[in-house]
Amino acid sequence: MVATTARKPVHLAVYDTFADWETGHTTAYLARAGYEIRTVGPSRAPVTSIGGLRIQPDLALDDVRPEDSSLLILTGADLWDTSDDLAPFARKARGFLDADVPVAAICGATAGLAREGLLDDRDHTSAISFYLAATGYKGGERYVDADAVTDGKLITAGPTEPVAFAREVFGMLGVYEGEVLDAWYRLFHDSDPEAYAVLEAAGQ
């Protein structure tokens, strides 16, 4: 792990029906690495996750600027597929990518990015190809059947791959690298006891 120094916060988008299990590995280990995790809602009004967790956002979306952030994380949510309520988060992701600040989207958030046109010219993945095809986007030829995909500053993953999603984020931010990153993934994805030994030897 890189030395813990002052870093810009990581911003985690939260909204009603957000899939609270999808980013647990990511935010827990980013926090352990010294990143402040700041939650971002449509406003500062409380939101409720799909699992019934009630969260008071630290910030409203309008108050988040790419230059103040290390990463924007967008989780899945029923609202991505049932309304346009979360479209402002996809537009914010465009601002981040235009500013060369990373964005990581999992599950339904990938459909939001597809509707925003952010997957038309980038390699990406999601739950399954026809899920994104239903958005009418133009990036079908860039779809990759993989657990998670990184293209430039954009990470995408499907809903069943929270560990792979975390792996890509850690690699992007340099939290873990090389065999330590691989061992972390094998431990939490495959329950590989040999991976635990690698992490222990590396002081993790």
Describe this structure in words.
It is built from eight helices and nine strands. The relative contact order is 0.14. Helix content is 35%, strand content 15%. The mean pLDDT is 95. The longest helix is centred in the last third of the chain and has 13 residues, at 178-190. Strand 1, helix 1 and strand 2 form a beta-alpha-beta unit. The protein is an alpha/beta fold and 204 residues long. The strands form two sheets. The protein has a seven-stranded mixed β-sheet, with helices on both faces. Strands 3-4 form a two-stranded antiparallel sheet. Helix 3 crosses helix 4 (108-115), helix 6 packs antiparallel against helix 7 and helix 7 (178-190) runs antiparallel to helix 8. The protein has helices at 24-32, 79-82, 87-98, 108-115, 129-133, 162-173, 178-190, 193-201, and strands at 10-13, 37-41, 47-48, 54-55, 59-60, 71-74, 103-106, 148-151, 154-157.
What key attributes describe this structure?
204 residues; alpha/beta; seven-stranded mixed β-sheet; two-stranded antiparallel sheet; 8 helices; 9 strands; 35% helix; 15% strand
